[in-house]
Amino acid sequence: MNHRIKTLSNYIHHYEKSIQDPEAFWGEIASIFQWKKPWKKILSWNFEGPDIKWFDGAQLNITENIFERLLPTHAEKTAILWEPNNPNDKSQKITYQELFHLTCQFSNVLESHGVKKGDRVIIYMPMIPEAAIAMLACARVGAIHSVVFAGFSATALADRINDCKAKMVLTADGNYRGAKNIPVKAVVDEALEKAPSVKKVIVCQRTGETVIMIPDRDIWWHDVMEGQSNQHAAVSMDAEDSLFILYTSGSTGKPKGVVHSTAGYMVYTYYSFLNVFQYNPTDIYWCTADIGWITGHSYIIYGPLLAGATSVMFEGVPTYPHPGRFWEIIDKFKINQFYTAPTAIRALQAYGLDPITPYSLASLTVIGSVGEPINEEAWHWYHTNIGKGKCPLVDTWWQTETGGIMISPLAGITPNKPAHASLPLPGIQPVIVDAEGNELKGNNVEGNLCIAFPWPSIIRTTYGDHKRCKETYFSTYPGMYFTGDGAKRDHDGYFRILGRVDDVINVSGHRMGTAEVENAINEHPKVIESAVVGYPHDIKGQGIYAFVICESSDDIAKLSEEIKDTVRKIIGPIAKPDVVQIVPGLPKTRSGKIMRRILRKVASQDLSNMGDTSTLLNPEVVEEIIKGAQKN
Length: 632
Ligand code: WTA
Description:
It is a single chain. Helices cover about 30% and strands about 25% of the residues. The protein is α/β, with parallel strands linked by helices. The protein has two domains: about 10-315 and about 395-475, Rossmann fold (3-Layer(aba) Sandwich), CATH 3.40.50; about 505-630, GMP Synthetase, Chain A, domain 3 (2-Layer Sandwich). The strands form nine sheets. It has a seven-stranded mixed β-sheet, sandwiched between helices. A five-stranded parallel β-sheet has the order 7-6-8-11-12, with helices on both faces. Strands 21-22-24-25 form a four-stranded antiparallel β-sheet. Strand 19 (about 365-370), helix 13 (about 375-385) and strand 20 form a beta-alpha-beta unit.
């Protein structure tokens, strides 16, 4: 069976096969890869543990499947096409051969500085080719990388380093983001005051600004690369050895380290990339995500490179130096597949059509969306003005925990239906359940989205705390993986994702746990208690609204700003509340639980029906909160 799907009937056939005999289905796809040792069993699993093993007994290295496997045919092909923040600076083309050599050199660097199989290495870097090289080199030596988005604060970075007890941090002097130059090395220095496990920091020179280099700890990337051999024998990894940890927010507590393993992740990111985007060998593909998020991992680096694609990596932001930058880059590189987030689409939509007019966008064949539900208006704007009405739009639903795209149209194959993620990929068995966990069969149903059967890139554990993995994903509805999302299956059997049903808010496509933001707010010395909810926001999808009880409320404006700033410092700018309302109390039930339903209504200015407030301990506080509600 050729694993490239070409028609709708082909899709149906592949899907059926993947359900009837998952092992045969995935075994056939996996057979194209280079294995150092064959597998003994394709799949063994239970969701009670959870304990999931794909291709158990096999040995491999994922980078051998990018390089050694592809070099005979791809040596001269561009692997990474890098566009700098400033359009007047030179872009860079890195061929598969060059990327291989750089990866080998950096693998030698890592090993010569004591990094061994299983060690954790933090990558806190700008969107520069060295970030990709860093990830690949970690994978090559068997180290577990944990990329931390370079916009997170020193505290957030230290928390992640401490959770996985990383030995090394890879960073840069600075990070160009539009007109800004963020001093990332200084953030690392601050974080390391609270993170003693790190023994070495390798600093890539990007902006050239002065940084403090601590003797014996900090070394320059260009210094250590010098003289390193461009050959390196890849370390053999077991199929189930961890490839990376990526921290993500949940309903409770601190962000958790989602762990992905090697073989299953490799097979699934490759397969889903090829089929969702219908990538052809001469295409130029661009995903605008940051490597700090799962989308960057799976669909800038691993999926495209495993498929031998040319993957564009962009350092900057969509509006710098002008709001037509994305469209300029599409024409410059003749991009075929373009993959971005609804928040970017809505932000650019706000500039009108003028920024698009100078560009033809004629090279585009597929456009994609990821990270949050795409509203119909944004869907049509994107489809009409960027896709020129001719490009299929793939609305891809998935999560950090799923590793790869789960529900999505296959470009040009699945009929497009605005704002619908549509149909599951082969191997994916979504079910919709009611609050009690009863499966809602048939069409025209709405409920909580679960997945009934393992797929190769499913989360294996949460780092250092397997119980938390079980409780978060496998306990709400025993026997199923629970996504945390609500979904509807319409009359045609197409899925529409309705958004989170838990206390996670999605701000500009970034996941934030309300508890995490509350904990940060509570660090402000004047704060007694807080409650955070999401509300609909035109550009960001959801905004962050914080209700805060303070010791004194003398200068409310000043206090609100201070609270916002506290969150920015503790987590990072992406978590800064849009609105802070100082309140005399929070609506609580007799058991002391905050009734968030009411706060959500106030935050979204939907005061029509407050529902039943009779169980509240302090119903009078609701009136006061409504009176003081902020416009947003
Ligand atoms: C949301 C990003 C609707 C969803 C890959 C999910 C989406 C969370 C879509 C995961 C989509 C992602 N339509 N909602 N196409 N894609 N989401 O872990 O709520 O950063 O649970 O992974 O984003 O966010 P994460």
